[in-house]
Amino acid sequence: MTPDLHTLLRQQTAGLHRRLDGAPELLALMRPGLTPSAYAAALRRYAAAHARVEPVLQALAPAGRPGLPPYRPRLPALQADLAALQVSPAVTPEPTGPAPALGPGACLGIRYVLEGSTQGARVIAARLARHLPQGCEQAFAFWRFQEIAAAAWPALCACLDRPPRDALEQAGIVQGARFAFDTFIDVFFAAEPPS
């Protein structure tokens, strides 16, 4: 019996998910002692990654998918937070390799990563609420937006709660998720934060 798409995505991207969760700037968000500069660096990396992934998603599925609410871009909230911190917007880093040729099925894989991040954002936001550096309180739009955007997660899970139609669809969806994870990993593990 073929597992459903959600299970396949979880299995196929587990290593990438673990690697991203180990990014130093993400771990810093979870710990007391977070400095304003470390908070800004994490937001800059988030903004740089979203600036690379969101246009690809929009190009793949400009009208969205039936049964799935349209994607709500996170980049404007990140840019607002950076402006509140008086930090220049992140420069989008160049990809470390050529961009993959993604088919229309990739949009579900990309959404899996972006919408799934709303679940982890709940944990991060709760921690930040306890130890956000003084003076950074006005730079919380991204986390509030992630809480609102989390409403799309159940609908996405419902879209993925079925076996793949065929091997081509399965490969496309997994490729989209890998592209999104790889992009975030490239940005969060780059030697220099985006400037």
Question: What overall form do the CA principal axes indicate?
Answer: elongated
Strand content bin? under 5%
In the CATH hierarchy, what is the class? Mainly Alpha
Total helical segments = 8
Total beta-strand segments: 0
Based on the coordinates given, report the CATH architecture: Up-down Bundle
Rg calculated over all Cα atoms: 17 Å
Total individual domains:
1
Percent helix, as a range, is 55-70%
Return residue spans where pLDDT drops below 50 for at least 5 consecutive residues: none
- Looking at the structure, the CATH topology is Heme Oxygenase, Chain A
CATH superfamily: Heme oxygenase-like
N- to C-terminal distance: 48 Å
Largest sheet properties:
none
Order of helices and strands: HHHHHHHH
Mean residue pLDDT: 90
Structural class: mainly alpha
GO biological process, one term: heme oxidation
GO molecular function: heme oxygenase (decyclizing) activity
Protein name: Heme oxygenase-like protein
Organism: Thauera chlorobenzoica
Question: Can you tell me about this structure?
Answer:
The model has no long low-confidence stretch (mean pLDDT 90). The chain has helices at residues 5-21, 24-29, 36-60, 75-84, 106-131, 141-149, 153-160, 167-188. The protein contains eight helices and no strands. Helix 5 (106-131) packs across helix 6 (141-149) and helix 5 (106-131) runs parallel beside helix 8 (167-188). 63% of the residues lie in helices and 0% in strands. The protein has a single domain (8-188), classed as Heme Oxygenase, Chain A, CATH 1.20.910.10. The chain has 195 residues and is mainly α. InterPro entries: Haem_Oase-like, Haem_Oase-like_multi-hlx. One of its GO terms (molecular function) is heme oxygenase (decyclizing) activity. This is Heme oxygenase-like protein. One of its GO terms (biological process) is heme oxidation.
